[in-house]
């Protein structure tokens, strides 16, 4: 039986999923993390809070694969935009991921992971296409049902879009304009920045487990937009994450 691992870095991003798993959920405490085992939309799932950062996310992914035999992994959560076309409330589905703060030069080229000979990790094409479709459908069909007009106005969620492209990860919350500009100059293909995805991508590559990652844009990652981050999580992001994943889980298995 296939088992889907679902990871998020913040509790609000998985709270609705845990509630939907119902009373038959089994919780396993491993490495100070709770792995919630059950079914969602009839599919076997393990839902887990990784906590923030690349090490935390990588450790969580390894446990999902080795202890729970996850056959595929999804990561959902928020990110900051570093592309002018990517706005607050948009969704980015990764085609590939890179650790922007990894630098073992001059022994290896900048960004390259030693002994793997690569810096970019490709998301699974099929899973990502399905996740992209679910994100688009959520935006166009469900968003106005889940998120009230007051919240949509507060965060300017009038025409959200779904983008596909490169996501970059690093162990730093990017909220400084100079840092954001430097990342844009160094990695012009990157659409958004976060703190976990590329480490999960590396683990999945090493274990040959397909994965997909969707990020909801919470800010411009440059300090220019004064967004109440906690309010965005409660009023917007948690609905996006649950709604997109509900659609994903409801899709028929091939």
UniProtKB/TrEMBL annotation:
Known pathway: Amino-acid biosynthesis; L-methionine biosynthesis via salvage pathway; S-methyl-5-thio-alpha-D-ribose 1-phosphate from S-methyl-5'-thioadenosine (hydrolase route): step 1/2
Keyword set, alphabetical order: Amino-acid biosynthesis, Glycosidase, Hydrolase, Methionine biosynthesis
Top EC class of this enzyme: hydrolase
EC number per UniProt: 3.2.2.9
Start and end residues of each Nucleoside phosphorylase domain: 4-248
Alphabetized Pfam families for the sequence: PNP_UDP_1 (PF01048)
MF GO annotations: adenosylhomocysteine nucleosidase activity
Coiled-coil blocks: none
The protein's name: adenosylhomocysteine nucleosidase
UniProt organism field: Advenella mandrilli
